[in-house]
Specification:
The complex is a heterodimer of chains A (123) and B (538). Chain A is α+β, with helices and mostly antiparallel strands and 123 residues long. Chain A has one domain: SCP2 sterol-binding domain (Nonspecific Lipid-transfer Protein, Chain A, 2-Layer Sandwich). Chain A is 41% helix and 22% strand. Chain A has 6 helices and 5 strands. Chain A has a 5-stranded mixed sheet. Chain B has 4 domains: 98 residues, Uridine Diphospho-n-acetylenolpyruvylglucosamine Reductase, domain 2; 124 residues, Uridine Diphospho-n-acetylenolpyruvylglucosamine Reductase, domain 3; 227 residues, 3-Layer(aba) Sandwich (Vanillyl-alcohol Oxidase, Chain A, domain 3); 49 residues. Chain B is built from 20 helices and 20 strands. In chain B, helix 1 crosses helix 18 and helix 3 packs antiparallel against helix 6. Classes of the chains: A alpha+beta (123), B alpha+beta (538). Chains A and B meet through helix 4, strand 5, helix 5 and helix 6 of A and helix 12 and helix 17 of B.
């Protein structure tokens, strides 16, 4: 799955990656497995096995849905699939684990808002 | 997700008016050669004065086109060749004379944007009105103020508010010219219930050199301006909203509203849009009410939580809840409806009781001012500043766009049809990928014209994304117009479009003839905002 996430975020989903701010730390949870997507300060993307609860935000969905989304060959295809999941009430759930402070709100806006918009999870 | 065919997309985009804006962007820009330009500049300098005629790039690029809406602003932007600054009616007539001689397009502008006329820039001459900002008269007995086109909202507020009056300013910045929000773009003020009442009379200059007076001013300068011209037609509405395509307003009598004894803003929480919409409609029928609106939970949440520790809860809820849900995590109703009112004490006390009775009838929960102040303090601050205390200086700094860019489409029609449209378009939005979006409603003219505006967030970081946004807005318009008996706002833009449905074209033909005849008579060289006329009337 790590390879699949990386391939998508560096390939057809590159524009999603472009909007993940430096220091971005996202957990993708599929059933019992979690994968951590990090953007370091030099804007290098890292995808690795992760543990539940150790990231700023967590995207949770079924493996089948994530596999389908990641197999998109373009952003247009990805968006159509996400719209279909939204329409059918199967949109991946997003939890924000950051402490509720003004500072974190500002960091969230800088780091995640446009990333989540590009993923069509937030609009 | 709905896939749009090329043909449908083209048709729909045009109906949205957005394609018209793109067409305007491609409108042939006026070419003025160096020598000719110098000659024209010299003539203007002689007619006005050298310091009031400018063509330096750092000046011309300052004029950014329509201020309203990202797609329009970006797609229709063309800087002018020169900017002139009139200070009097005579200056304007001189400018028209020279511009007509050289057949140069003229675009009237206030505050660097074309909000005064809502007209896109297509090069040529910009006529900046901000130097014409005299207040000619304030009548506190008959409740009106006579202003020049560059007079700002703030200027008028500073004078009328201490005297116990409000003006129907709306949410645009207070440094905008007052006639931009009340006359030229009149739907954008916060007295929706009295939308058409704001302009009493106008003085208008046209490119052929005519000076037209409307209202009682048609009979000559008297002490009192009135919108009842007795034997003449009510011509004020010919120029408002005029989109600056017929003439430019050089003087306007604007209504100011006495605060009287008391103001009130009853707020009612609803868990469905339809009930809220019916409540605002019933309330709008009361003479006490200046404005009724509904704000969805997305909108209220944005205002309430944007600068608090709960902002992240709000964002989480936005990703979780749908438009028609009750966002329990945030403790919000699905939507909030309110009615802003002024009056004598007994009237207001009675009207608030009516609001409570109507809330019960429509299944809403009446929320007292104390409840609002305690439970939704930021929302209440915004609502009450704008609609109860008329503290427009506060409302300026508490804008609606905290959640970033998006697009805006609005419709009006029969109350139940608008409700049906809302429910149907929810499904459409979801098919397009939106979980929820911002909207607010109004009831124009005592409930006669129910109105709803959608403002979904969208990405608009570059030209491609803006085009995509325009495409989506067009598709939404198409869906709505094909399925519901409602009218889009700005329908004037579509009159002259060959791709419009035949029925629309046929019905518009006599109106176009009438307006074209007026325009040809008063603007024979077609210099005033010609680009907009090309796609509307001429």
């Amino acid at each position: 799955m790590e390879e699949k996430i990386t391939a998508f975020l560096e390939g057809p989903g590159k524009e999603i990656t472009d909007y993940l701010g430096p220091g971005g730390d996202v957990l993708i949870t599929l059933g019992d497995s979690s994968y951590r997507v990090k953007m370091d300060k030099d804007r290098e993307l890292q995808v690795e096995k992760g543990e539940k609860g150790n990231s700023d935000i967590e995207i949770t969905t079924e493996a089948e849905i994530m596999n389908d989304l990641l197999s998109s060959s373009s952003m247009e295809e990805y968006r159509q699939k996400m719209a279909s999941y939204t329409f059918n009430n199967k949109k991946p759930a997003v939890k924000i684990h950051m402490e509720r402070t003004d500072k974190n709100a500002a960091r969230f806006i800088r780091t995640y808002v446009y990333f989540l918009r590009r993923m069509w999870l937030l609009n | 997700m709905q896939k749009i065919s090329d043909k449908t997309e083209q048709k729909l985009s045009r109906l949205a008016g957005a394609a018209t804006m793109e067409a305007l962007r491609n409108h042939e820009k006026v070419k003025i050669s160096g020598e000719k330009k110098r000659k024209i500049l010299d003539e203007f300098r002689e007619a006005l004065s050298p310091d009031r005629v400018r063509d330096e790039p750092h000046v011309t690029t300052y004029y950014r086109g329509p201020a309203h809406g990202t797609p329009r602003r970006v797609l229709s932007y063309v800087p002018p060749d020169m900017v002139v600054y009139p200070e009097s009616r005579e200056d304007i007539l001189e400018i028209f004379k020279i511009a007509s001689k050289y057949k140069l397009p003229v675009t009237p502008v206030g505050m660097q944007s074309t909000m005064v006329g809502g007209t896109p820039l297509t090069g040529g001459i910009v006529m900046d009105f901000m130097g014409m900002n005299k207040i000619h008269k304030i009548d506190t007995e008959q409740n009106y103020v006579v202003v020049e086109p560059g007079t700002t909202v703030q200027q008028v507020m500073d004078i009328v508010q201490p005297k116990g009056f409000a003006i129907a300013k709306g949410t645009y910045p207070s440094n905008f010219p007052i006639i931009s929000t009340l006359v030229s773009w009149f739907s954008q003020h916060n007295f929706g219930n009295r939308m058409l009442d704001q302009a009493i009379g106008l003085e208008v200059c046209t490119p052929d050199g005519s000076v037209i007076h409307t209202g009682s001013m048609i009979y000559g300068e008297t002490e009192h301006w009135s919108d009842v011209p007795q034997s003449a037609a009510r011509l004020t509405n010919l120029f408002s909203p005029h989109q600056a395509s017929i003439g430019v307003i050089t003087k306007a009598a604007i209504r100011m509203w006495p605060m009287l004894d008391k103001t009130a803003l009853p707020v009612v929480g609803f868990n469905d849009f339809a009930s809220a919409f019916r409540w605002t409609h019933d309330m709008a029928k009361s003479n006490m009410v200046d404005q009724t609106m509904i704000w969805c939970w997305v909108h209220v949440g944005g205002i309430e939580f944007q600068k608090t520790g709960r902002y992240l809860d709000y964002i989480e809820a936005k990703m979780k809840y749908r438009q028609e849900d009750v966002p329990e995590d945030l403790g919000l109703f699905n939507c909030y409806a309110f009615a802003g009112m002024r009056g004598y004490e007994e009237e207001i006390d009675g009207a608030v009781k009516v609001a409570e009775r109507m809330a019960k009838r429509h299944g809403g929960t009446y929320l007292s001012e104390e409840w609002m102040a305690e439970n939704l303090p930021n929302t209440w601050l915004y609502f009450s500043a704008l609609h109860k205390d008329f503290r427009y200086d506060l409302s300026d700094s508490m804008g609606l766009s905290s959640e970033g860019g998006g697009f805006s489409v609005q419709y009006m029609g029969d109350r139940e049809e608008v409700i049906r449209m809302y429910e149907g378009s929810n499904k459409w939005f979801r098919k397009m990928g939106w979980n929820n979006w911002r909207y607010y409603s109004r009831m124009f003219n005592a409930g006669q014209t129910p109105w709803l505006r959608y403002m979904p967030n969208s990405n608009s970081a570059n030209q491609e994304e803006i085009k995509e946004t325009v495409r989506i807005a067009g598709a939404l318009n198409a869906y709505i117009l094909e399925n519901y008996e409602v009218n889009p706002e700005n329908a004037m833009f579509y009159f002259n479009d060959p791709d419009n449905p035949e029925e629309v074209r046929d019905r518009a033909k006599p109106v176009r003839r009438l307006m074209r005849a007026v325009q040809k008579e008063f603007d024979p060289e077609n210099i005033l905002s010609p680009a907009i006329k090309k796609y509307t009337l001429v």
